[in-house]
Amino acid sequence: MGIIQYGDDPVTEISLKSYSNSRELKSAVDKIMQKGGLSNVGKALSYINKQYFSDANGNRGGAPNVAVVLVDGWPTDKVEEASRLARESGINIFFVTIEGPDDNEKQNLVEVNFVDKAVCRTNGFYSLPVNSWFALRKAVQPLVKRVCDTDRLVCSKTCLNANDIAFVIDGSSSVGTGNFRTVLQFVANVTREFEISDTDTRVGAVQYTYEQRLEFAFGQYNNKGELLNAIKRINYWSGGTSTGAAITYAAEQLFSKSKPNKRKIMIVITDGRSYDDVRAPALAVHRQGVIAYSIGIAWAAQDELEYIATDPDKEHSFFVDEFDNLYKFVPKIIHNICQEFNSQPRN
Fold first, then answer.
1. CA-CA distance, 77 to 70, in Å (whole number)?
2. Per-residue pLDDT reduced to its tens digit, 36-47
3. Which domains, from first to last, does the chain contain?
4. Predicted model pTM
């Protein structure tokens, strides 16, 4: 743990790697001198996000990031934008407000409901109002209890580390060996953007023709290097095109084993019209809470791509005229996955 003091500007008093035992840390805390100045909480949150929780400053991969923000009265700048960016980076923001504004003082606020705009969730778990400095000691135990409840530190979950992603890959004869390698490169490029581990994002893959084959299951490869190698090793199958059956197979083989706290995402990549019905299988996976993306190439049928994709289609369905242009959609897909994640309600 460490400490930032803020007034007009934030400053690191103790970095995350300064002390490794509580006795030394406590002694360092006693020596901190008060800065004075304004109460620019927004600036402090921005600093926490951009500079404090960095690898160089001692941030560790597996440990949840928690910021306990003590505010006397109310902030003198806006917190909403800075805290949104911090939350999206996976920082769990707790607010301890001491002697918050009474009804007469609320007209002085730069931003009304500043606590709700700042904290990780607006359900009361992340905010501790304290009515006097003397009462602050009573907030210690409840706060420690909450910070230690790691299952509820939901802001540690970001759009890059909280998914089960199934790639459903068309291996039909019309694709061809060279184009199939291009598809695998696309799958690898999308995968590379996520944080991969058993507790972060997991990736599975199915290849299909008339039949289906599980290439690898969720959690079979739990580090990025192994996973990217496994994608590279997928052998081209060649055959017909039964996309509907492949979607059902992915639901049975992959999503049935999904973790309850993960978002289920399916990315179907096909280059032609399916020989079977895609509408009913797609509807079934949508009802199971799977977010479906469809990527159509060359002769793929627009109506089928739209049936497969989660609504709105324009956010989840993409078409390219040739395989070599697939790479252009990687940033768009990542952006849409993150935008959808970050627009979830915060209560």
1. 15
2. 999 999 999 999
3. 3-155 (3.40.50.410), 163-339 (3.40.50.410)
4. 0.81
